[in-house]
Each structure stands twice: as structure tokens, then as C-alpha cells.
Amino acid sequence: MAPPLPYATSLVGRDRELSWFGRRVTDAIAGRGRVVLVEGEAGIGKTTLVRTVCAAAAGQGAQVFCGAGDELTDALPLVPLLDALGVSETSTDPDRAAILRLLHGDTARSTADLVAAAGERLIGLVDDACGRGPVVLAIDDLQWADRMTVAVWGRLAKLVPHLRLLLIGTVRPGADNDQLALARTKRDAVEKLAVGPLSRPAVTDLVTRLAGGRPAPELTELAQGAAGNPLYLTELVEALVRDGGLDVTPDGMAKVSGDGAPQSLAAAIESRLGFLTDDTHRVLRAAALLGVRFSVGDLAVVSHRRVADLFQALDASCVAGVLTDANGYLSFRHPFVRSALYEGIPVAVRAAWHVEAAKALAAAGAAVDDVARQLIASGDALAEHSPDDWLLDWLVHHSAALAGKAPSAAAAILRPAVAAATGRRHAVLVCRQAEALYRAGDPAAAEEVAVAALPRIDEVSCRTDLHWTLAQSRSMIGRAAETLRELESVLRSDEYPGRYRARLMVLAARAHWDVGELDAADELAVTALDTADGDRWAEGWALHVRTIVSVERGRMRQALPLFDRALRVVLGDPAMTDLLLLLQINRAIALSGMNHMDEAIAAARQVREQADHAGHVLRMAQACSALGQLCYDSGMWDDALVEVELVADELKNPVVVCCDHGNSAAINLHRNNIAAARAHLAAAAPYESELGDRVVPSLALAASLAAEHRGSDADALELLRPAGEQDIEDLLPDIVRLAVRVGATHDAADAMAKVAALAADTCVPHRSAAEAYCRGLIDGDADKLLRAADGYSDAGRPFARARALEAAAVAFAEQGDTSSAKAAFSRAVDLYATLGAEWHVARSQASLRLYGIRRGPHAAHRRARTGWHSLTQAEQIVAELVMAGLSNRQIGERLFSSPRTVATHVSHILAKLGVRTRTDIAREASKHQAAASG
Question: 493 lies in which domain range?
Fold first, then answer.
């Protein structure tokens, strides 16, 4: 039974909630993570309840981290989590400092990627803390948090099964936030606690404590008007006490002695504030500009006073219960108190005051976020009054960082500033405005700004930046051809000298590639290299274009030297880390195209770890996806399943999501895990709908395999036809296989011609093997199919080899060569069994049984799906290290892997063992070791 939670005397009528929470605290301390979403109206006591729970958990040895959403911070990403986990400008811890560097922005990367990377680092901080001991992380007022804060909260909710974490969020009913709506529906992960009005006995108890006596009937009637809301009740009774409106009789009865009872919560709060001096009111209004929680230093700056001069007003506010101490900050005791003060300032006055506060904070050297928060809150004040020089200068220096971190807010702030600025300030700011709009996901508006600005700007560097934003925006909405026409026109002039001209050539080369003009893309990239004049940015991206053209043409041997040259150009330049990672990912793919599979996998693993360390979530997702595909092709299916889960779907490009779920679905179909395969196909469906006619090979293959499982080879072929029309190399052999089976001779011949053309253009083993396989299927030639199997073996592709051997066995059987058929069949089944491809084992056995051929007594045993023996070798190692008490990060350091890889392994182990906690894993590992030693 959970120990009772201690609570303050003001927390009345919440015994049920406290007891319920007490069990969750006990579970978290014991290693069984929990997620709780507390819902209730404003003033109902959510915050007090959670604070009491946190205090109790801290008393039982848990680490407690608390943050809160705020009306002034919803435009800035991750602020509640940054506050909770102690990430600030003064952070000296390297991990926390790295998070701030990410949020300061990087013009080479999207805002979404930077914020997502910071969010992943915050998850890492929580994971590390859980490795040291049980953790309670509470985020109050999630309805005011930005989308990324709620998304990270949701990601942590998914990780809770293998963390010693009690994750708490509070929210008001009906909060309009898509992420919160999603969190509310996560029935398996999130427990919801509804905090309702106090019961009548609890109302009586609370009023008795506040009034100092049992409430008389008239006081009881007044109290019932508060509808069981503890905040309103407290303010109501305390207002009566302050006004002398309550008398306590000798027999302990509290009676109303006047008619001045507040008629609403706002009136009750106004009554509390009415007892403060005018000077204290002025100080509190200035504090209200800063939000629910604020620093005394910032208040001194905004109010233009010394801290010593603020002491009397702040002390009186704390005594009156308006402000409370909040771990080095001051906080309004409830958001309603702050709102009453804030809304008491005329709208025009407070808007202008926000601008003045921003100016004062900027002059004092405050962080970009603190200044931006005031500018955002000023609303239309910036647009109605021409921005001062200080603001224009501040934006020239800081708008790039603001556009990188909070692009929507930056775009709003920059709009009036661009209209007011002249000369170079205008040129810089309009570039940042277009960039902010692009980063905010509004390419049409970004294009409009860039197009209007280009004719009016003389500075070449700013014009080049605008062309870059314009090209990116048009590419996002499928209008690369328009970019190409415009850049060709610009390049015919001489207005862009040297490296600026080279950069525009690179943009044009990329546009050529976007529209499928590979020769033109390559030629222009070569010219850009000749023109770059030592500009590493232009050289690096020009070489990137040349590499992707070579890879797309299948000229892998030509591509590798270009990759090496490009890597030498960008290596060591922090500003080009994004391109460095992209080149390394593509190089790994090129190596696999040459069938250097071991080298390709090693290269992909290396770049995955580099991307994770650098906080590049976009490139991390791409590296994991590439590695998952390499592991799939190499027959390392258990590793492939891990790779595709390392980054959450919401942080990936839709193409990557579809590719990853396609690979996972295909593996599960091969292994006859139908339910798991369907779940992956369902998860991919919303993302696939965003891709239009684009075919993602792995997803198309999985959908086709699902049709085969249903016994419809014709449907399976139909699902692959678009891939054949788009000449997707990896799926052509499957098209031939299915076309031969259903008698679709035209489809078989068309795909065969494409396979033959690819094989003729290269000496890559898997292409030669594919040609032999397809010809063998069409001709029923067992010898060609055996040559294909040998070619796939040389290429390191065991599943493709097994398919060729199975087809050879059927061809031999049809020729009456039972001995050769049985030999090929036996090798195919061995390979299938090694991969765990149970569906193919059963299907091939049924197929060869028609010819009187059976596998014999040496068939491989079926793989265990649950229990200790279902764990892969990597999972068994991780389980043993969990038993040793190591955290995910410590295990990762031991295995030279990332914490997120370890977390995925732990998640798989929990599922396979049918347990909930790391303690359970340790227990199972211990049992296995004892059984093995006995």
C-alpha cells in the first residue's frame, strides 16, 4: 500500500487524488514509470495538487523538475522544459550549453530540425537523470506550451515504460492544441486524472479553516456560489476577512457581518490587490509584463529601479499572498492574479510598455528570448508606430537567431521593421523576413517577399541570400522549373561576381536535378566549381550535385572520388556540418550500390552517430533510414528493425517515414507477423498521402507482399506497376517474378528490358545477378537462376539469394531433376530460416511438395518470438548490462552506441519478455544466467 502524501492545510478535499498519486509516486520510485495528465478548470487546484505530489516525491528521494507554460512563451520553443531542466544562458554543463547553441539557430538548417534536435537533447537529460535515480517531471499549464514542448512531453510518455519517471502535465479542459488532443487519446500510455469541484463537506472544511470558525448559513450560501473552486473560495473568504465582513461568535460560528462579498473571482482578486499601496501596484503591473514567473533583475530593468528600491513592494506582495518564491525567481501565486493586474492596464498602454520593456532589456544585454517575448506581446504596437533605431539595430544583429528559433514570431516582428528600415538595414532585415517566412512553413509568403525585394536591393550578398530563400521556397511547392528559368536569366548578366555567381550556379544545378535534367545539372555544377574561387560553400554543394547525379545514373565508381573530394572541402567547417552529414549518408548508399556492404554499413553507422552527436535530427533520421535499408538488403533484419525506430515519425521527412515503415512491414511479412506488418502499413498511410504519385520502394514492396499474403498475386503485381513506370531498380525483379506467375508477359518483358539495361551499364554484382534472376524466371532456366544466386551471394544479399535458389529448385523440379531441385531447395530453406523468414519457409515447402520434394530432418528450428531466447544477441547484451544497473547512456558508452539505440533495444526487450520495467529485465537476465550456469 502506498504511503499517504503529506499536504498543506490549504489542500482540502483531495484525499482521493492524493492517494491515487501516491501509488504513482511509489511505482516510479520502484522503477515502473507512469504518465499522468491532470485536467481541471482554472483555480480548481491542479497546480497545488501537483506541487504537493512533487514535494512528497522529493521527500522520498526522487529528483523533481518543474516547469510551466505561460501566455508570453507560447511563441518560443521548449521554454517550459528549458526552465524545468535548468537550461539557461548561464548553464555551464556541456549538454545544456549544447541545447542553447542549437536554439540559437543555424542558417543551413531548418527551424524544425534545430528545435527537434534540442527537444531530443532534453529527452537525453531526462534519461540521464533517470539513470541516476527516480525522476518526477511536471509541466504545468500545457495548454500554453508551444507545440514542441507538448511533442517532447509526448515522446517522453512513450519512453516511460523503461524509465524511472513519473511524467505529469496539467491542462485546462478543451485546450485547443492538436498535440494535447493526441496525448489525451494515448490510452495505453497516459492516465488521466480529472480534478473536479470540491464536495460540499470539503467546501465547509476549507471555509472553516479560512474563516476560523464553522460557516453560518449565509456564509455557506455565499461559499456555494464559488461552485467548489478552491481559488475562488480562498479569495472570497479572505476578502471578507480583510474587509471586516466576518465575525466569529464565541461558540465558533463564522457569520457574514456586511454585504461586501466579492461577486466573482476577478472581484475577489481585485479586493486582495486593493489592500496594496499605489507604488506596490505599479511594481506588480511591471512584473505582470514579464509573465507569471520573473526574475527580480529583469523587473529592476523594466521598472527602471534598483533592486533595493523594489524590496518594500515585493515584500508586501509576498506577505499579501500575491507573489510567492519560486526557486530563485518570483511568481504570481496563480495566473489569474497576474491576469487581473495585466488586464487592468489599458491595451494601448501595455502594448507600448512591452516595447519599452524590450528596449530596456536589450540595453541591459538580456537574452534574445527575453527581448523577443516583449516584442511579441506588444502586438500591433510595432506596426502602428515606426520602429526606433534601437530596434532596427537590435534586429540586424539578432533576427537571424530569432528566425532560426521562432520563425513565426520573427516574421511578425520583422514586418514593420522592414517597412521602416532603409539602406543596408533594410536589405539585411528583408532577407531575414523572407527566411523566417520560409522556416515558418509559408513558402508562398516567403516567395512574395523575396520577389518584391530583389529589384530594390543593391547589395550582392543580400540578393544572393534572397535567391537562396526563393529557390528553397519554390522547391518546397514543386516549382523548381520556375526557379531555373529565373536563375538562367540572372546568370546571363554580369551583376553577380565571383563566389556569388558560383552560388547561384549551384542553385540552378540543384533546380536542374529537381526537374530531372541530370546532364544539365552536372554540367552547371562543373562550371560552378571552376567559378567558386575558393568559396567552400559553393564548392561543397556543387560537388554534392555531381555525386547525386552519378549515384542516380548508377555510376558508383565515378561517384566515390567525387564524394572524397567533397568531404575534403567541407571537413572542419562547422557551418557546413549539414552538408558533411548529407555527403556521408549518400556515400554510404553509393558503397552499397557497389556491393561493398560491410563498408557501407560501417559508414552509415558512423554518420548516424555523428548526426546524433551534432543534434541534426533530419540527417539522423536519414542516416537511420539508410542504415535500415542496408541492413535489410544484407539480411540483418533484427538490426534493421532497430534502426527504423530510433527517430520518432513526427521528426522525420514523410518519405523517410514511409521508407522505414515499409521496411519494417516487409520484414514482419517475411516472418509471418501479420498484425505487426499491418500496424506499420497503417502508420505509414497518413504520410504516404502527402507524397502524391511518388513511389517509396520499400512501402510499395510491403503493400505488394501483403497482397501476396492474401493470395492475390494479380493485386500484388498491380501495386508494383507504378514502381515499374518510375524505373525503381530494386523492385524490378519482383515485378518480373509476379508477372511470370500471373502470365503478364508484357509487364515481364518491360521490366526485363530495364534490368538488362542497368546491368549493361555497370559491372556491379547485384545488377548482374538481377539480370540472371529475371531471365531465369522468364525462361524457366535453372542454371541462370543458380548463377543469380551466386551473384547475390557475392553481393552480400542473402534474401535475394534464397529467392533465386527457391526459383532454381522449382525449375529443376519441373525438368525432373529431383536431386538438383532438392539441393537448391535445402539451401534456400536454410537461408530463409536464418533470416527468420517463416512465411517463405512454409510457402517454399508447400510449393516443392507438389513435386514430391521435402526438406528432410535437418530443417532449422522456428525462431522463438517471446521469452529470453527470442532476444537477439545485441538485446541479450543490453539486458545483461541493464541487470548490472547501467543507464542507457552508460550502456551506450560501453557498446559504442547512442542512448537512443539502447532505449530502442530496451523497448524491444520489454515487449519480448512481456514485462514492464528495467527491474523486470534484470530479474529475467538473472534467471537466465542462473539456469545457464546450473
Answer: 478-571
